[in-house]
Amino acid sequence: MQLFLVLVCFLAACAAQKPHPCVSPSLLSGQFSVSTQNEQLWAFARFLYDALGQRIRLQEFGFYQNKTFTYDTLLLYREGVVYEINNSEKKCMKRPLRADFHPMEVPKNASLLGQVVVGSSSAPGQGLLVNTWTGEFPANAPYLFTVTEFGCIPVSTTFKTQPFGWMVTSFFNNVIGISDPNELNPPSFCQDAEEEEEPVNFVSLLQMKSVQAQVNHSPHP
Asked: Which end of the chain is more exposed for a tag (fewer CB within 10 A), N or C?
């Protein structure tokens, strides 16, 4: 009986604690979807995230203005390089990466918007306790970031970009760790990668692939 009372008090104390900004696991894999305010872009991606090595792999399929596009991209932030990988043709495109690595985390200056249960709190296993945070990036761009209370696993992000307006990313099937670390290294055929001088970041990559989708689906004379 005493052990039961101690456990109840411990759980009550944990529930009473105010959520604090947190950092997501350093190694994470899963999937996410992206949609935009102007309704012109929707994408679905498998991702690998390595905060220790500052590497991200994205294998994405999407629609832009009702045109489809796909891409497989490896972002190496320490090297300042992006590889666009075409496994079927064993080809690579190498571009400079114009961005700093930002780990998946709730910024320390973020404000707690609220804590809710996604699903149901009627019985164990029916709901997920999440915290939603809000703030502004350095360029006065507002954001919303929702993570799980336990583990700081990303659930969704919302922030403003140009030219898409508000961009919403929803994460799912997240797993801590990476089953095949080799996927975060450039394939051997990328040693002879064609190099482009135009630097890119995540948003400009989406724009570039969106434009390519339009070109590839446009009628040719």
From this structure: C
Q: Using the Cα atoms of residue 146, residue 150, residue 152 and residue 154 in order, give the sign of their dihedral.
A: negative
Which pLDDT score, from 0 to 100, does residue 215 have? 41
DSSP 53: T
Distances (CA, A) of 82 to 2, 50, 68, 118, 197: 58, 15, 22, 36, 11
Whether residue 79 contacts residue 193, with contact meaning beta carbons closer than 8 Å, is answered with: no
Judge whether 41 and 62 are in contact, CB under 8 Å: yes
Q: What is the mean pLDDT of the chain?
A: 83
- The pLDDT of residue 97 is 87
Distance of alpha carbon 44 from alpha carbon 64, whole angstroms? 12
Q: How far is residue 49's CA from residue 25's CA, in Å, rounded to a whole number? A: 9
- The dihedral through the CA atoms of 189, 192, 193, 199 has a sign that is positive
Q: How far apart are CA 137 and CA 129, in angstroms?
A: 25
CB atoms within 10 A of CB 214: 13
Enter the pTM of the model.
0.81
Give the H or E element holding residue 202. Answer: helix 202-217
Residue 103 has pLDDT above 90, yes or no: yes
Residue type, 160: K
Residues 2 and 127 sit within 8 Å (Cβ to Cβ): no
Q: What is the largest CA-CA distance in the chain?
A: 82
- What is the reported pLDDT for 70? 84
